[in-house]
């Protein structure tokens, strides 16, 4: 099911955030969810606090201005019948939002994909990337140039995996993409990319005939598992909106999105190993480094949430 009860919308009120708020409002109205609007004021660096007289008054003025802007946004949402709260937080945005999700029971975070001051290359900024790594609930990142309505939603699934967590995420990704495409009356594509594990290594260490046989078996298995998944969701293998491609997901997903004018990608994310994430980067992060459209990243009910200092707390399943 694609249902939310408490939506946390993280905004920078220095920017025009109406598109972000409107996207959250649509989900809220469809699910009957409440919304909490938050903005974060960073701490002044120590050198500024030491050298700038009246820095505390300046900071209080910034907080007051942000609260006033949040109040105006909240009033517009209340006029649509949405239950809204606001808050101005202090510190680092990703840390404050993640902590608020854990303490407040929020089940969706909505934020711009890239902030005004971001210097990170690609379509996703540093704060958004940190939220994807740290936040225990689904995260919807809105591209700065996103249109009011999505025209093409892309559901990315990993049906070649034997892992239970991937099967659960696949179901949730398709459910979420289907609902969003219905709400926006948009095209929906279901996409899977398969590859041969260690292909470059095997190419130079196996005979041509053996590698061709392996490739054919992997292709056959991948296509069967994808077709079985489609049938479970009431779709046919020959559906013109279902696509399977050979290649690494981190390469094939952005290519398909670009070629087919996708403006919202829905995909799952689950960190199996902190070491592999550090060395290789997750598929999600590699995809986000090159795309320029909005993305909804679905998380499992249960995940380890990093807390600074090397400790971990566990996000308990509500199921």
Structure description:
The chain starts with 5 loop residues before the first strand and ends with a strand. It folds into two domains: 143 residues, HUPs (Rossmann fold), CATH 3.40.50; 173 residues, Rossmann fold (3-Layer(aba) Sandwich). The C terminus is likely disordered. With 319 residues, the protein is of the alpha/beta class. Strands 3-2-1-4-5-10-9-6-7-8 form a ten-stranded mixed β-sheet, sandwiched between helices. The chain has a two-stranded antiparallel ribbon with strand order 11-12. Strand 6, helix 6 and strand 7 form a beta-alpha-beta unit. Helix 4 packs parallel to helix 5. The radius of gyration is 21 Å and the shape is globular. Helix content is 44%, strand content 21%. This is Universal stress protein E. It comes from Stieleria maiorica. One of its GO terms (cellular component) is cytoplasm. Belongs to the universal stress protein A family.
Main attributes of the structure:
Rossmann fold, 319 residues, 11 helices, UspA, cytoplasm, Universal stress protein E, 10-stranded mixed beta sheet, Universal_stress_UspA, 12 strands, disordered C terminus
């Amino acid at each position: 099911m694609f249902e939310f009860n408490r939506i946390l919308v993280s905004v920078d009120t220095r920017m025009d955030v109406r598109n972000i708020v409107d996207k959250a409002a649509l989900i809220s109205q469809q699910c009957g969810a409440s919304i909490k609007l938050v903005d974060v004021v960073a701490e002044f660096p120590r050198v500024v606090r030491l050298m700038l007289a009246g820095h505390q008054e300046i900071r209080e003025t910034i907080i007051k201005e942000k609260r006033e802007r949040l109040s105006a946004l909240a009033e517009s949402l209340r006029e649509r019948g949405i239950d809204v709260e606001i808050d101005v937080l202090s510190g680092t945005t990703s840390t404050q939002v993640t902590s608020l999700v854990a303490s407040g029971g929020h089940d969706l975070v909505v934020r711009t994909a890239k902030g005004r001051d971001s210097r990170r290359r690609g379509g996703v900024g540093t704060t958004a990337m940190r939220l994807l790594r740290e936040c225990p609930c689904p995260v919807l990142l809105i591209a700065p140039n996103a249109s009011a309505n999505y025209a093409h939603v892309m559901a990315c699934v990993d049906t070649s995996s034997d892992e239970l967590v991937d099967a659960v995420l696949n179901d949730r990704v398709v459910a979420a993409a289907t609902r969003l495409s219905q709400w926006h009356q948009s095209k929906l594509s279901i996409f899977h990319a398969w590859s041969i594990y260690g292909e470059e290594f095997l190419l130079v260490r196996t005979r041509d005939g053996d590698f061709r046989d392996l490739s054919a078996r992997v292709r056959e298995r991948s296509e069967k598992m994808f077709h079985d998944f489609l049938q479970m969701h009431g779709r046919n293998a020959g559906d013109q909106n279902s696509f399977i491609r050979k290649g690494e997901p981190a390469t094939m997903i952005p290519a398909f999105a670009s070629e087919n004018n996708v403006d919202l990608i829905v995909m799952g994310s689950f960190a199996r190993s902190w070491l592999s994430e550090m060395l290789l980067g997750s598929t999600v992060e590699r995809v986000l480094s090159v795309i320029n459209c909005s993305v909804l990243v679905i998380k499992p009910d249960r995940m380890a949430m990093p807390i600074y200092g090397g400790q971990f707390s566990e996000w308990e399943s509500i199921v």
